[in-house]
Amino acid sequence: MMEPTTNIDMDAVDAENHLEVEGKTQLINQVLEPQHTLQDLPVRGDAVMEENLKLKSENQVLRQYTENFMSASSVFQTTDTKSKRKYRIEALLFYGIAADLSLYVGQISKVIVPLFVVSLNIYEANVRCRQHS
User: Fold this and answer.
1) Segments making up each domain of the chain, as ranges
2) What is the pLDDT of residue 57?
3) Is the dihedral of CA 40, 45, 46, 48 positive or negative?
4) CA distance 127 to 132
5) Which residues form a coiled coil (predicted)?
6) Secondary structure in 3-state letters for the chain
7) Which residue has the higher pLDDT, 129 or 80?
């Protein structure tokens, strides 16, 4: 014969079910949050690439301006051979390219680092889900 359940037993079962549902909801939200962030990354990547193209264009204009200024200015005119002047201009252009590269790496890191963090968060959330299963 079955024993009748009391209100206290039912309340305990309801509380346990509520905690279980709440825990699962939290885990689902922890998994979904990095996924939404991951979905946002292509948009952020596109914005970074657009900014990079804009900066490259601006740097090209500045490089051309610097080269024209150096060609027209008597300060940069040398009594040495033309090749030394050419190397001086190439050195300035090299530093400009190095600055461009540094800027590009900085822009790319703005996308790669969040992607790594999101991947790590997804991995950790999956591990927690497996532990609770």
Assistant:
1) 26-132
2) 85
3) positive
4) 9
5) none
6) CCCCCCHHHHHHHHHHHHHHHHHHHHHHHHHHHHHHHHHHHHHHHHHHHHHHHHHHHHHHHHHHHHHHHHHHCHHHCCCCCHHHHHHHHHHHHHHHHHHHHHHHHHHHHHHHHHHHHHHHHHHHHHHHHHHHC
7) 129
Q: How many residues does the chain have?
A: 133
State pLDDT tens for residues 18-62.
Answer: 888 888 899 888 888 878 877 887 888 888 888 888 888 887 887
What span, in angstroms and rounded, lies between the C-alpha atoms of 33 and 55? 32
How far, in Å, CA of 37 to CA of 73, rounded?
52
What pLDDT digit, counting tens, does each position of 69-97 carry? 767 766 555 555 555 555 555 665 666 66
Contacts for 103 with CB less than 8 Å, ≥ 6 apart? 52, 55
Residue, of 54 and 124, whose pLDDT is higher: 54
